[in-house]
Amino acid sequence: MSEPQVAGPLAGITVLDLSRVLAGPWCSQVLGDLGADVIKVEQPGQGDDTRKWGPPFLDDGSRDAAYYLCANRNKRSVAIDMAEPAGAELIRRFAAQADVVIENFRVGGLAKYGLDFESLREVKPDLIYLSITGFGQTGPLRNNGGYDFLVQGMSGLMSVTGLPDGEPGGGPMKVGIPISDLTTGLYAAISVLAALNHRHATGEGQRIDLALLDTQVALLANQASNWMNGGMVPRRMGNQHPNTVPYQDFACSDGSVLVALGNDRQFRAFTALIGLPDLADDERFAISAGRSVNRDALLAQLRPAIARWKSAELIAVMEAAGLPGGKVNEIPEVLDHPQIEARGLVHEMARSDGTPVKVLGFPARLSASPATYRHAPPRSGEDTVAVLSERLGLGKDEIERLLAAGVIAETL
To answer: Domain of life of the organism in this record (predicted)?
Structure first.
């Protein structure tokens, strides 16, 4: 007999998710992993845009894209047309029971349906209402649409990502995952948790205004600080680090190796390991600041010494010496890695029709209230009837009338 699942730390919290694509759904998936009951509202006949963002697609009746599956577990999907007055009223009734509403429509886009913060606060005064937009609710760009790729460029991230200008392949480069969307989703979840704690202490709900551009600028971290506090304009440096040297990839005789040395002790041990112990006593390289200033001179000596090694052998001796080094894994390699298996990061779930789906789990391990995996990413509208009956008490005749009128829909 299987052990009963521990209720997540957000058990009892209801999230009404009006968002689509990635930043909002990523936030609601985090909340769902932690135990919240997430009701995902989708447009009848359309569904979340990412359901069509393939190939690859699931080989089942839904033909949902793999992209959609990455951000929508632990949710129940209801298909409601909010453009219909009866549909907007259903969503208002859901909001009256919800703790959190998440939306990522353009600024003011939900007001015409009576689903904006001011309208919903009238039916639920302690509601936490999260709005995610490209540029926020204020400022000269507030009415512009925001997309991850655009924000990566506008935020300055692409100015420090990629090979330097003048080198083959040099120029601005986006990150290989939609990092602005994902980090906005994480900041959104953090903000919701903070607002829930504030409500617990005061009984007061609030509006959360979160922008992709603000999030990505906040994540410039050391690069922005180098400019603000040191006057250094960050530039694209490929895989090199702007402050710490050596912290990059090096060519070996049969491939490449990653070397990430963060302090003087590690540098001394590494130079001894590769047969260049005198480098650590050279006044140009003995301390981190010197290595950064004299980067080119140091690399001119390290590169030929490292090139004599086979990559696996160098990684092995670095590991034995407790020095941080490794290789660049491809996605299949990392997902099959013994460390990832030991951490239990890959989970297999089954959709309502039995179709298996693999997902990457919640990375934090909470000893008393761990993340749970209760619902595989749903088909669009598959929970419409059940949720309307359970949450709003709608009877069979009323549900059939709404289905016939196109206000709601079942599974696509």
So the answer is: Bacteria
